Amino acid sequence: MGIFEESRCITLQIQGIQFGHLDRKDRYNKVISVINTSNASLSFPDLFKNQHQLKGFYRLMNNKSVDHSTFISGYQTGLIAYSKEQSIDDPWILVQDTMLTDYNSRNLDLGYTQTERSNGFLLHHGLLLDENYLPLGLLHQQIIHRERSDFGKASKWKSKPTAEKESNKWLEGIETGIRFSKETGRGLIHVMDREADIIDVINKCVETDQYFIIRARHDRSILTTSQKDKAESPELFRMFSLMPSLVDSITINRTLRNEKGREYRAECDMSYHSFKFRGINEPINCVWIRERGCPEGTRPAEWFLLTNKEISNKADAEKVPEIYSRRWTVEDFHKCYKTGCSIEKRQFDSRKSLLTGIGLLAITAVVLLRSRYISKLEHHTPFEIIVTDKHEQALAKTLADKYLMPIDRQLCEPYSVLWWVLLLGRMGGHQGYKSKGLPGWQILWKGYSFFQTIAIGYKHANNSP
What pLDDT shows up at residue 154? Predict the structure, then answer.
């Protein structure tokens, strides 16, 4: 039981991890059972209640035969197995993004991230979503170390090919997607932000029949080199000028997010067109969308989205920003990783054991993420899929009378997953779904810890003679 949802998808990913030894597998199963039924943001000494459990955990993390790749390759195996069990209709979505870590207070030197004195590394993620945008798991995770001797020498990398740059992370993610598609026969849509607007990345997707949606960073020209030299106003032939000037723009209503991630509905202008850009092997489509009537003093939301998906009508075009908007899911994953699993607070005395621990906790972050998304996307689902203990189910129903407000009962069905999340939120001090949205992970953990404290007394009372 936990805040967690139990599912075939998660089970297969855990089963996919191969340790090469039954004792190590047994130890892992005990470790992950404790983490997934406790507050995963706690320190390891607080998570594992006795020294025997704690020593067993550290032995697993320090074992020479267990490392970061042990877990990531296991998750990949499990996701391939899960895909093969599902019908193949619409493609799934692979969202790529990079997360910075901060270990500035540690003596362990991990390299720099943004400044010369910073200490940490980058984690580049490929988060897999199904056709309904439900997070499935981490298909790709790449650790990027920046050596301190390279700080301030970015100019030396400019002339090098993409494969030798840090930008190669996007190509590595695409390669992982290609292998997944070959194993499963399932198509993927790679969703990437402006940092991935690179000719080599786009051409890689085109050449390997991988769909992509990338937010444009470069104001690309539709003129060839010779045409550019002859044109009187070459700037008029650039994408950022051309798209808003198209006469066949459309008005749509869609959900946007502000800088804090809060969703809101807005009326937007949208147009779409196919272009042949210099250096890109095939024509690609661009979908432009810009918010109308935004508040004074704020910049309207505006996206130029590049894709090789076919667009033949308005519905096809609207689907592109809809899919791209799911990129925010990986940002939520980063919050689950940093806040829900506290990966930046973990104390290890070696880089190897730290990275191994981060690999282990990835599945917990995914489970956290899935549970929250299920409460939002599948909010009618009975909460018994999460709370499997009969005594705790009865306790939750009793506590709901005290903690849930009348507005909460209007916003959710009784005894649904959303009902459970709102109950934990109220018990953790959340001010309500209608005004504040879904509770965050710190509030959920606080509410869950409080619930567990009450549950211990409840069980003792019901088992007493």
Answer: 72
